[in-house]
């Protein structure tokens, strides 16, 4: 494998790993919110803690999608044609 391909692959993998890690926090908060919060104020606190991660997730997803399109167009076609 060429050095450029290997570099793009590790960058691509890192982008997706960061996206899934941050998205796991958001999904986890959403799943346990009804179990750990006893009143409306506690629910708002859980939702407020999601805020910074929610915006970062969008950036990581768009960046990972763009890197997939730029570095691996055939993988991009396979991954994202599923949504159509």
Task: Name its key features.
mainly alpha; 3 helices; 0% strand
Short synopsis of the structure:
This protein has three helices and no strands. With 84 residues, the protein is mainly alpha-helical. It has one domain.
Task: Please explain how this structure is put together.
The model has no long low-confidence stretch (mean pLDDT 89). The protein contains 3 helices and no strands. It has one domain (7-83). It has 84 residues and is an all-alpha fold. The two termini are 32 Å apart.
- Beta content comes to under 5%
- Tally of extended strands? 0
Low-confidence stretches: none
The whole-number mean of residue pLDDT values reads 89
Helical amount: over 70%
Question: What oligomeric arrangement do these chains adopt?
Answer: single chain
Written as H for each helix and E for each strand, in order along the chain, the element string is HHH
């Amino acid at each position: 494998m060429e050095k450029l391909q290997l570099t793009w692959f590790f960058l691509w993998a890192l982008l997706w790993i960061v996206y899934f890690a941050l998205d796991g926090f958001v999904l986890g908060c959403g799943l346990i919110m009804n179990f750990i919060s006893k009143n409306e104020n506690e629910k708002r606190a859980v939702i407020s803690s999601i805020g910074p991660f929610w915006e970062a997730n969008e950036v990581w997803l768009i960046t990972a999608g763009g890197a997939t399109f730029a570095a691996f167009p055939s993988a991009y076609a396979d991954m994202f044609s599923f949504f159509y």
